[in-house]
Amino acid sequence: MLIQYLPIFVLALVVVGFALSNLVLSDVLGKKRRSIGKADVYESGMDPVGGARLRQSIHYYLVAVLFILFDVESIFLIPWAAAGKQLAAMGLGDLVFYQVLIFVGTLGLGLAYVWRKGGLEWDR
Amino acid sequence: MQSGSNVFLEGLRQFAPEAVPGWALMLTAAGIGVAIVMGLVSVNAIFSVWLERKVSGHIQCRYGPMYVGWHGWLQSIADGVKLLLKEDMIPAGADRAMFMLAPALVLASILGAMAAFPLMPDVFFADLDLGLFAILAFSSLTTIGVVMAGWASNSKWTIFGAMREAAQVVAYEIPLGVALLVPVMVAGTFNLREASALQSGMWGMDWFVMPWNNPFVLPAAVLFLVAALAETKRAPFDLPEAESELVAGFMTEYSGIRWSFFFMEEYAAMFLMSAVGAVFFFGGFESPLTALAARLVEDPRLIVPAAEGGMRLNLGSLPYQLAAGTTLLLKTFAGIFLMMWLRWTLPRIRIDQVMTMGYKYLTPLALLCVLGAGIWEAIRHSWLR
How many domains are contained in chain A? Predict the structure, then answer.
């Protein structure tokens, strides 16, 4: 039922209003004394050298890719978990269970492969 | 307990004049609900910040805040006023639009998740059949806000914090979601109120976590606790903030009211995770107190069908509703207290340990739990019939 979600849309509007009004209030009430030193980023008292958009370790990318794999997996498990009882009542429990077993088993093999290949080692 | 009947809406229908159109009533009901959710988040942030400072103080053999009010209970309000009056700085090299948007996005997503949280069995804001799913979906949006904040600040500390947040939260979302599927499997629903009502047997002690229901729920609860700590960036998983190594991590460059948005998000997220854990593992509204109240009132439903058709409010059920709401709040704050206790007891772990734990231990264990729970449920409902 889509009408269930009407309060959430109202909430979204109010939240935007809340955030904006707080920011405006803070802008009106707060002091403003700008200076070059103050606008610098904090680097423990030193003048910052170069920008901050440095190259990051490739591991972060790998983690993101692995996440997509397992997140899709958990998305497929969700309907099974929620409907398991009804499926069992319909006599489909066994069939769906074996399908899920094959599905999770395949992904488990994938995890084992990544593990053996060293994809989960952070300090390499 | 029928789905979609909102107590605010029914109350308005009963007392509003006939001429008021239905959509206006619905909007007003939603407005009352919004006020309650916003109030809950604000009061929770104010109270939890004070509680955290008191708990940490007493764990370290000191008092914590003592001066503003009795045992410093007004300290958070005084801090809030101070934050509102602070200068709102934006660093010169920052991406201004993203910098300004990030805290609002973080706050909005956690407030969206709060919407699915029921206050009492019949007092709720939005009764979603996919309640748990909505909570998980909304609360994972906060990661985007945090990464945006870290990137937009253009400071080295914030970038490190943002990258750690991305890796850590992304890695722990899988065990979190999969561990929650175990009680969902026992309940057969994502709706928080329905899941809670299923645990009302045995004087309110028939919780999903009890081993006679399904022995795989207890290990799933432990996995959920660890993953929830990582998801809410709480110690020992507070690497994105890591105040002793990254200054303040992703929020180093934030000040004033924008910074307080991150704070409100952190405490709202703790509240939500504790509440989800309480509902799906530890009985939700159900406890011996609730069961007693349910036996004392005539009809535990707050909205009952009226004799002349339609619905009417049954105020006689208020003792039961209040007992149930208090039970859930107490359980939630017990969870929050546990998280605070852990923060001041365990040292922070390194990023490689975080990743090892997430992918090598929690994810496979959570998958095994789900499969085990599936076998158990299949035996109970299909093979043994």
Answer: 2
In this complex, which of B4, B108, B166 lies closest to A4 when CB atoms are compared? B4
Residue type, A38: K
Chain A residues lying within 8 Å of B374, measured CB to CB = 80-81, 84, 97, 100
- The Cβ of residue A1 has, within 10 Å, a number of other Cβ atoms equal to 10
CB-based contact B217:B182 (threshold 8 Å): yes
Residue A1: strand, helix, or coil: coil
Residue type, position B384, single letter: L
Tell me, yes or no, whether A51 lies in a domain. Answer: no
Residue A84 maps to a domain? yes
pLDDT tens digits for range B192-239: 888 888 888 778 788 888 888 888 889 999 999 999 998 888 878 887
Domain boundaries, chain B: 6-384
Claim to verify: residue A103 and residue A76 sit in the same structural domain: yes
Q: Does B115 touch chain A (CB under 8 A)?
A: yes
In chain A, which ranges are continuous DSSP H helix?
Answer: 6-29, 36-39, 58-89, 93-117
Amino acid found at A99: Q
Report the pLDDT value the prediction gives residue B274, as an integer from 0 to 100.
93
**B257–chain A Cβ distance below 8 A for any pair:** yes
What is the spatial distance between Cα B75 and Cα A110, in angstroms, rounded to a whole number?
A: 52
DSSP one-letter code for B284:
T
Determine whether the interchain pair A81/B91 forms a contact, defined as Cβ–Cβ distance below 8 Å.
Answer: no
Is A73 found in the same domain as A111? yes
Q: Do A67 and B355 touch (CB under 8 A)?
A: no
Question: Measuring CA to CA, which residue among B262, B285, B282, B295 is closest to residue B99?
Answer: B262
Q: What is the percentage of chain B residues whose pLDDT exceeds 70?
A: 96
Q: Which of B141, B136, B199 is nearest to B165 (CA)?
A: B141
Q: Residue B2: which pLDDT band, with cuts at 50, 70 and 90?
A: very low
Minimal Cβ distance to B126: which of A7, A15, A40? A7
Six-digit token string for B205? 């002690």
Cβ–Cβ below 8 Å for A97 and B374: yes
Residue A11 belongs to a domain: yes
Q: Name the DSSP letter for residue A102.
A: H
Cβ-nearest to B363 among A70, A77, A100: A70
